[in-house]
């Protein structure tokens, strides 16, 4: 799988009573996004970190023309309208990221169950140094069970200039193994000391298309 040039992450609030119906509609909306420019879509709900219970919708694009195609489709989408009007879904954040190179061969079968998002600002490290150290630790993530690993820098929306790392896992035990392994890794220690991590959340994945 090629490195996506752009990634869009949308977060939305949703009442508990209508969350399941909203997630079912997200599956149909993901298909519409694929038909109008997104090359892959991941969606689910936050179970830990900021905004627990929020819905998360992640789209990957080869270029901004694909993003434009999805944005042009949204006002015409009856599925999107049902999410807003029937299920009280209320988007409160949408960030567009420029993808950054991570040396990691993705594995999407079986479908990952959890997505961990980590946001950080550069500190003592510059971008090249951060990406170099992150690539050195990619094998630790892989050996511990991580299935995909993506990095992007915010281009639009809140927290401009920050970086977001997204890693998917098959189960919670893989997350535990990963961070146990990273705790003794010198490259990871240098990475963490050179950036300022200000958010980490786990999303339970409902679907990947």
How does this model look, in words?
The protein is an alpha+beta fold. The model has no long low-confidence stretch (mean pLDDT 96). The chain is globular and about 50 Å long. It folds into two domains: 92 residues, Alpha-Beta Plaits (2-Layer Sandwich); 109 residues, Alpha-Beta Plaits. The longest helix has 18 residues. Helix 4 crosses helix 5 and helix 4 packs across helix 6. It has six helices and eight strands. Strands 1-3-2-8-5-7-6-4 form an eight-stranded antiparallel beta barrel, surrounded by five helices.
- Helices, by number, come to 6
Structural class: alpha+beta
Mean pLDDT: 96
Number of strands: 8
Number of domains: 2
Relative helix content:
25-40%
Keywords:
209 residues, Alpha-Beta Plaits, 8 strands, globular
Give me a quick take on this structure.
This protein has 209 residues and is of the alpha+beta class. It is built from 6 helices and 8 strands, in the order βαββααββαββααβ.
What's the layout of helices and strands?
Blueprint: E1 6-13, H1 19-35, E2 40-48, E3 55-61, H2 64-73, H3 78-85, E4 90-100, E5 114-122, H4 127-144, E6 148-156, E7 163-169, H5 172-182, H6 186-193, E8 195-208
Antiparallel strand pairs: 1-3, 1-4, 2-3, 2-8, 4-6, 5-7, 5-8, 6-7
């Amino acid at each position: 799988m090629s490195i996506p040039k752009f990634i869009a992450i949308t977060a939305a609030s949703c009442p508990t009573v209508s969350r399941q119906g909203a997630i079912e509609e997200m599956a149909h909306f993901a298909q519409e996004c694929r038909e109008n420019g997104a090359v892959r879509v991941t969606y689910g709900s936050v179970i830990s970190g900021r905004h627990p219970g929020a819905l998360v919708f992640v789209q990957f694009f080869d270029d901004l023309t694909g993003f434009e195609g999805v944005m042009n489709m949204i006002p015409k989408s009856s599925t999107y309208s049902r999410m807003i009007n029937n299920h009280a879904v209320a988007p409160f954040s949408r960030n567009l990221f420029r993808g950054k190179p991570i040396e990691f061969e993705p594995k999407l079968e079986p479908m990952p169950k959890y997505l961990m998002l980590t946001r950080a600002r550069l500190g003592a490290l510059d971008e090249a140094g951060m990406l170099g150290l992150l690539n050195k630790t990619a094998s630790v993530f892989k050996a511990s069970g991580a299935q995909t690993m993506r990095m992007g820098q915010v281009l639009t929306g809140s927290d401009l200039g920050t970086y977001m790392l997204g890693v998917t896992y098959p189960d919670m035990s893989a997350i535990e193994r990963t961070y146990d392994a990273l705790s003794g890794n010198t490259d990871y220690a240098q990475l963490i000391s050179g950036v300022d991590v200000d958010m980490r959340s786990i999303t339970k994945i409902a679907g990947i298309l």
